[in-house]
Design a protein that fits this description.
This protein is of the alpha/beta class. Helix content is 36%, strand content 18%. The longest helix is centred in the last third of the chain and has 19 residues. The chain binds S-adenosyl-L-homocysteine. The site of S-adenosyl-L-homocysteine has 18 residues, from β5.
Amino acid sequence: MRIDIITVLPEMIQGFFEHSIMSRAQKKGLAEFHIHNLRDYTQDKHRRVDDYPFGGCAGMVMKIEPIDRCISMLKEERSYDEVIFTSPDGEPFTQPMANSLSLYENLIILCGHFKGIDFRIREHLITKEISIGDYVLTGGELAAAVIADAVVRIIPGVISDEQSALSDSFQDNLLAPPVYTRPAEYKGWRVPDILLSGHEAKIKEWELQQSIERTQKLRPDLLR
Ligand code: SAH
């Protein structure tokens, strides 16, 4: 999978993709990340990416031309499955959405800034708008990193034990069961006996039961 991220702050997210699982996904050839500095697609000497809004409201708005140039350049090189815009009024980002995006080959993620982007970009160039939650960030970079991380980690082979990604919270609409490691007892706090029993089938049953109970208690909305 290839993900192209368009941003005015490339240095803010570059580092994110150079560590841990995201970097491993690239080394294994399972994912490619390309970060594009929107200012490289301006044509004026001040490299302006924003301008005053029509109508006189407060804040600045991202201009159409550099965004259109960057997206057009990318589309000339290959076809994209989705051109995503990160936005608080987009579709809420969920695990099922991450699962379906992970099946795609090429994605563009455009990060907004300031007051937002000229609405015509959203009408004519964007195919999907995603919000990572009901709060407002200063820019789309963190949202792009969140989306890329959730999508790439479930590509088969990215995480060494594939089963591990499939048994995470929200797969099957259930929260994950509790996990423990050594020592089996610490300050008198004991790991549940069942996990030390070696009975694989009973452990699986216990984990499922825990998942259901935790989901009922913490996120009953997922079970409905
Ligand atoms: N005026 C806008 C908010 C702009 S915040 C509004 O009220 O809706 C600046 C940029 O940060 C946005 O264009 C978007 O790209 C990004 N952003 C902010 N909050 C976000 C969220 N919850 N999910 C995804 N992107 C977000």
